[in-house]
Amino acid sequence: MDPLPNSAPLATKLRNTLVQYHSIGDSEWRLFMISSILFQKDATVWRKPSEEFSGYLYKAQGVIEDVTNRIVDHIRPGPYRLDWDSLMTTMDIMETFEENCCVMRYTTAGQLWNIIAPREFVDFSYTTSYEDGLLTCGISLDYGEVRPNFVRGFNHPCGWFCVPLKDYPSHSLLTGYIQTELRGMLPQSAVDTAMSSTLANFYSDLKKALK
């Protein structure tokens, strides 16, 4: 188990990595799925090979009818997340460095009839300003004992950019970058199916919670 890192340089490196992902040109992405409910588009998802591991970096994007601060308060570690995120089953703040920076441990439910067993993650989380909005981002750490009955997954640099729409400031554009290494012996088809349902549910569950 590694010791806890120095939070300031890790936060800076994490933010810079996410800003780099955010600047990747459209031509490098391949359409993965379009999520819609009752013919209203919830989110569009693209992907490209990750430079961090052998899986994919996913990019998800959709418009949320709410202000930036309230949306990010529901996404980042805090009292709201467990109430609406259908995948997350527990969440504990293990260490707090400052108001916008912490280490959290959380668990996720089994997926695909438990082909993908419940997972546990320990993530460093950082929330900061970005342009006229916010960026909340994270990366997994090798920290803390693994709980029984869980596989320890690993999130390579991930994050959510949330900025108000210029012509509709009461609406926000939410863009996420996700590259989760689930670990364990899993076929790629199961991982793809799990990622598509996870990202679709994320947007639809979040929209319901904000109403």
TrEMBL record:
PROSITE patterns: START
One cellular component term from this protein's GO annotations in UniProt: cytosol
Molecular function terms, GO-annotated: cholesterol binding; cholesterol transfer activity
Gene3D superfamilies: 3.30.530.20
Name of one Pfam family that matches: START
Segments forming domain START: 10-211
InterPro entries named among the record's database cross-references: StarD4 (IPR042555), START-like_dom_sf (IPR023393), START_lipid-bd_dom (IPR002913)
One GO term (biological process): intracellular cholesterol transport
Protein's name according to its UniProt entry: StAR-related lipid transfer protein 4
Native source organism of the sequence: Cariama cristata (Red-legged seriema)
